[in-house]
Amino acid sequence: MEVKQKTIDIIKQTRKAAPEAFEARKLYLKMRKAIAEALKDEAKTIPQVAEATNIPIGEATYYMMAMLKFGELSVNGIDDMDEYYFYQLTKQ
Amino acid sequence: METQQETCINESLYDVLVIGAGIAGEESALKLADMGYRVLLVEKEPSIGGKMILLSKVFPTLDCAACITTPKVSETARHPNITILTLTEVEEIVRDNKNRFSVTLKKKPRYVVEKDCTGCQECEKACPAIVNDQFQFNLTARKAVYIPFTIANPRVALIDINNCLLCGACEKACPSNCIDFSQTEEQLKITAKSVIVSTGFKLFDPIQIERYGFGRYKNVITSMQMERQLAPTRPFNNILRPSDGKVPDKIAYIFCTGSRDHTVGNPICSQVCCMYSTKQAQLLMGALPMADVSLYYINIRAFGKGFDEFYEQAKDMGAKYVKGKIASITEKENGNLILRYEDIATGKVTEKEHDLVVLSVGILANPGITRVFKKERLETDALNYIRQTDLLQSPAITSIEGVFAAGTATAPMDIPDTIMSAGAAATETSSYLVRLS
Fold first, then answer.
1. Are residues B348 and B384 in the same domain?
2. Structure pTM?
3. How far is B170 from chain A (nearest CA, A)?
4. Domain A7-89 classified CATH 3.40.30.10?
5. Which domain holds residue B304?
6. Using one digit for the tens of pLDDT, what is the confidence trace for A29-40?
7. With contact defined as beta carbons under 8 Å apart, do B301 and B270 qualify?
């Protein structure tokens, strides 16, 4: 197959990435690391992860749902009250 | 109809320009294309299919929305007489001296070569940038390079350049070498003999009704957010409340949020809210059998074929319809919500606690397209919908000869009415093109 020249350098000549995009990335990495650490040994519910990481529960929900979408988390059952799902890491 | 010879001479000459590739635009385009007309279908979003492609099921049959939409979307995409331009907006339409419309289009760069992308999503896996997913109504995140949703058509990635880190990871990861950051915005000029406006509607933004707390309280969501949660291509693994991922147990719907409401400038009925809320209530009771679903309404408007039976069915399933407009919502520390309302049946001001509130948002006009017509005025009615100059005899006819309107561009309506409206617009257009030739 013909090797095409990478075009990313072309656009870099005319525009820069937005600082907000880097901030969002940094925040996601920080959240992901904390969530992964909390789930290292056992599956947990969102409130349990929020408690273990001190991440506000709303943010923990958003980032855990993003990780679920990106295939980094999977569902592992539901609690006895049928209220909260348990989530686990898909890979260590 | 245009002769084949002329079509071959001028590749940018179309019989019909259809603006908006939702269900109305697709239906009009397909009907005209089947008659042999050459159609250009222009869509500003990265996928065709409009809002219907994002729905879970449809009322009153509870048919899977995607199962109805996707074949139509595919048929539109593959029809030899239809050319589709996505990520494209109409900038200007002027009638020329041959009684045709000279159209200027602005095509935004996708930064992906459409014909080469296989939709493998390797670029998505490599992309490090995280952004709110607008196609999941911000309930979850997406990457900066992404396929809008699972059943998008074309199923081709695009790059959200404003949130891109310009790291080039997607380009390195792409197995078909189709990422192309050298793409720029293009201006296209085409000529069309007629135009169909099928630009659809906007959803009411409930942030305008402060007492409902949308935007402040995480567990107050819109009906479109619930619709996504109920869809097979949903943002979460199940139906969860956004504040803490709890499976909701007591769910409330507030009807007429931003419709039949003079205070927000939309005094008319949106025609679909009662029924889509009833549909969602039935789906919720199916998905969460123990859930208690209460629906707070002013009046139930179940006017269509099978609608009243559908409403009765929801009540039989256990949906609680409460007549009373919500005065205020307050949030408890655990995220639960207290609804304060006057129960019309008892005449008492009552408070009730729910753990999730769904606002049944209304429909608003989307009149931006009127600005692109130069020299002639595409008139709108008092509520900014496209004015139908002869509503009873020819509802597709607008104030400009050769320009027709389809679907919710003219008024709020449900899917069957949209399909009928689109059929009427196609028929009027065909008749106009015959007269023109």
1. no
2. 0.94
3. 10
4. no
5. 204-363
6. 999 999 999 999
7. no
Residue B325: inside a domain, yes or no?
A: yes
Residue whose entry in the numeric block shows the structure tokens 């290292």: A40
Q: How many domains, chain B?
A: 3
* Beta bridge partner(s), residue B130: B143
Q: Where are the domains of chain A?
A: 7-89
Q: Which of B316, B341, B363 is the last residue in one of the domains?
A: B363
Q: Which residue of A12, A66, A75 is in closest CB contact with B166?
A: A12
Q: Would you tell me how many other CB atoms lie within 10 Å of the CB of residue A25?
A: 20
Q: B281 φ, ψ to 5°? A: -60, -45
Cα distance between the two ends of chain A: 36
Across residues A6-28, what is the average pLDDT? 94
CB contact under 8 A, B129 and A8: no
Structure tokens at B102: 């000279």
For A29, the token pair is: 């990495």
C-alpha of B33 from chain center? 23
Determine contact, residues B244/A61, Cβ cutoff 8 Å. yes
* Smallest Cα distance from A61 to chain B, Å: 6
- Strands B320-323 and B145-146, sheet pairing: unpaired
Whether residue A43 contacts residue A88, with contact meaning beta carbons closer than 8 Å, is answered with yes
DSSP string, B4-38: HHHHHH-TTEEEEEEE--SHHHHHHHHHHHHTT--
Q: What whole-number distance in Å separates Cα of residue B34 and Cα of residue B245?
A: 48
Task: Answer yes or no: is B245 within a domain.
Answer: yes
Q: Do B162 and A69 touch (CB under 8 A)?
A: no
Report residues of chain B scoring pLDDT below 70: 1-11
Cβ atoms of residues A73 and A87 within 8 Å: yes
Residue B145's H or E segment, with its range, is: strand B145-146
Which residues does chain A have within 8 Å of residue B238's beta carbon, measured at their own beta carbons?
A: 85
- B172, two tokens: 């390195």
Does B129 touch chain A if contact means CB atoms closer than 8 Å?
yes
